[in-house]
Design brief:
- With 586 residues, the chain is α/β, with parallel strands linked by helices.
- The protein has a 7-stranded parallel sheet, with helices on both faces. It has a 7-stranded parallel sheet with strand order 10-11-9-12-13-8-14, with helices on both faces.
- It starts with a helix and ends in a 12-residue tail after the last helix.
- Bound molecules: adenosine-5'-diphosphate and magnesium ion.
């Protein structure tokens, strides 16, 4: 606390800081606060997310403005609604002992009139997203001609999101004498341009190295085959029972798909992407903050506003195109002095990208293996054992204990423990006993791909009147199998592909070969996974036997599969096994 005092902060702030439980200033606070308090200067501060930037500009701004006046004196621009609200909350918490303080948040997707009214009551500080701010300036709902301090928070993100013009426009309505404080995690060209255009002789602060990730984050990668990404994700989650994570995907579609699959498989997961309504996004974020969601699957754009503390893992389901995006992603963990892990699920072709990320962030990745079934069972059991050990007894169960006791009269403690843990163990054991190694080597391409299911070729296609859906129905009926037992059905012109679990493979050959459909004799064959996989990189259209197959032997990605997003697509896309363990909801 004395350390905060030494920075020059006044009693009103110190009291709030005590309430907040901050003990020592963070590095960026230590460097920025004295300068901003003492001097009327422009400032550029480069620091990662989670380093306490809000207080670094918030404390000095609060101390310097005049709360007795109702003129708008401070403007904070930030990229997203989410951040905007968060900064407003923080500012109100820091300024709770300033009587008459009015910090107003301005952002899209909420009533503009309400926001204008709040400003009119005398907002000394406005926290705004650029789009809505510009709108309100043009409607004369705000007056920023007298501001003294202007903060550009997460400047790199704002520019990434295309707010350059808006920021230009907004700043043109502010007085030249104001001080501009720019905060950014990275320093791309665009930020430098803004700085040179709008700032005069700025004081510069760097925390850590430019473009370098948080020191508290360790980086790992796991090498798998492209189609084992989801399996890998699940195993990593199962191996970390207390995971609280953001899972990044590259597209909205993958984001939605991965989240749906996780939910289907019993994980506490949720999706966050731009196709959701603001309301849906708010709900997801609320559940995430409350930790009802343990795995938040998100696109880069949607995740921009996420500043949630205590995230244990950032998972890259796929790597981003831009290396700076990697820095932003991994900065979601390791915040506020905590440690975090950034895990990349990578394929062989992404190894080079990992090497270039290493150079930029100046940190090495640890290559790790996807844990095997045994290791996962062990971790899950120990986690349960610890949970049992730490559970406080709920005496509401006392009345039932007699009955339970009589059931176990003959059972020794040792036996009872074994039985109890078997309940949990069997679930994972049954799923993982057949699980194979999905680690891919960095070198050879001889790795066997997923062996849990078998892929078949059948000589019936759309020419015979089938769509993938009717083909699926046909197969289900002929084989007398359930809804989820036939999957990854791809119907081409004269033939189709589909998968069944290995234990149904024999059945497929027996039941289908030789039957007649529209006077055609049906023929099914097992496709050769290995050949197909290699064919992908070498000779895309041929399998080992030289027979011409469709572009990628089935399993479409991209636009084509959009047409399959019908009501049945759920069962089609997961290729799931009925013995998959469901995670108990916590
Ligand atoms: P940034 O803007 O750099 O991403 P924030 O300002 O959002 O970081 O701060 C991250 C978290 O750290 C917040 O929960 C904040 O309340 C907390 N925090 C900030 N400064 C301190 C401090 N000096 N001591 C302890 N916690 C702090
Ligand atoms: Mg911030």
């Amino acid at each position: 606390m004395t350390k905060f005092k030494a920075l020059g902060l006044n009693e009103t702030l110190l009291q709030a800081i005590t309430d907040l439980g901050f003990e020592t200033p963070s590095e960026v606070q230590e460097k920025a606060i004295p300068v901003l308090l003492d001097e009327e200067t422009d400032l550029i501060a480069l620091a990662q997310t989670g380093t306490g930037k809000t207080a670094a500009f918030g404390f000095p701004m609060l101390q310097k403005i005049d709360v007795e006046s109702r003129t708008t004196q401070g403007l904070i621009l930030s990229p997203t609604r989410e951040l905007c609200l968060q900064i407003t909350n923080e500012m109100n918490a820091y300024g709770k002992y300033f009587k008459g303080l009015n910090v107003t948040a301005i952002y899209g997707g909420a009533s503009i009139t309400d926001q204008a009214n709040k400003v009119k009551k005398g907002a000394q500080i406005i926290v705004a997203t650029p789009g809505r701010m510009k709108d309100m300036i043009s409607r004369k709902m705000v007056n920023i001609s007298k501001i003294e301090y202007c903060v550009l928070d997460e400047a790199d993100e704002m520019l990434n999101m295309g707010f350059y013009e808006d920021i230009n426009d907004i700043l043109s309505h502010t007085p030249d004498e104001k001080n501009t404080w720019l905060f950014s995690a990275t320093m791309p060209k665009e930020v430098a341009t803004i700085a040179s255009k709008f700032m005069y002789n700025p004081h510069e602060i760097t925390v850590g190295t430019k473009n370098q990730g948080s020191q508290n984050v360790s980086h790992e990668y796991y090498m798998v085959g492209a189609r084992d990404r989801y399996l890998a994700l699940k195993r990593l989650a199962d191996y970390n029972p207390d995971i609280f994570s953001v899972v990044f995907c590259r597209t909205k579609r993958d984001t939605q798909k991965v989240a749906e699959k996780l939910i289907e498989d019993g994980y506490n997961a949720g999706a966050l992407h731009g196709d959701l309504s603001q309301n849906q996004r708010d709900l997801v974020m609320k559940s995430f903050r409350n930790k009802q969601i343990q795995m938040l699957v998100a696109t880069d754009v949607a995740a921009r506003g996420i500043d949630v503390d205590n995230i244990t893992h950032v998972l890259h389901y796929q790597l981003p195109d831009e290396i700076e995006t990697y820095t932003h992603r991994s900065g979601r963990t390791g915040r506020a002095g905590k440690t975090g892990v950034s895990m990349v699920i990578a394929t062989k072709s992404e190894l080079r990208k990992i090497k270039s990320i290493e150079r930029i962030i100046k940190k090495e990745f640890n290559k790790k293996d996807i844990p095997d079934g045994k290791a996962i069972c062990e971790v899950q059991l120990m986690s349960l054992a610890n949970k049992v050990n730490h559970t406080e007894i709920n005496h509401e169960i006392d009345p039932f204990i007699d009955n339970i006791n009589s059931l176990f009269e003959e059972t020794s403690k040792e036996e009872l423990i074994k039985k109890f843990f078997s309940v949990e163990f069997n679930r994972f054991y049954n799923y993982y006993k057949k699980a194979h190694d999905i680690n891919a080597s960095d070198k050879g391409s001889h790795k066997e791909i997923s062996a849990e299911s078998t892929r078949f070729f059948i000589n019936l296609g759309s020419k015979d009147g089938f769509t993938w859906m009717s083909m699926k129905d046909f197969l289900k009926a002929e084989l007398k199998l359930g809804r989820d037992d036939v999957f990854k059905v791809d119907t081409k012109n004269t033939f189709s592909f589909f998968n069944v679990e290995n234990n149904h493979a024999e059945l497929v050959l027996q039941k289908l070969n030789g039957i007649k459909v529209n006077d055609r004799i049906v023929s099914v064959e097992v496709t050769e996974n290995k050949a197909r996989d290699r064919g992908r990189s070498r000779n895309r259209n041929r399998n080992k036997s030289g027979k011409r197959f469709g572009n990628d032997g089935g399993n479409f990605r991209g636009s084509k599969s959009d047409s399959r997003r019908g009501r049945n697509s759920k069962s089609d896309r997961s290729g799931k096994s009925s013995s998959r363990p469901r995670r108990s909801r916590r």
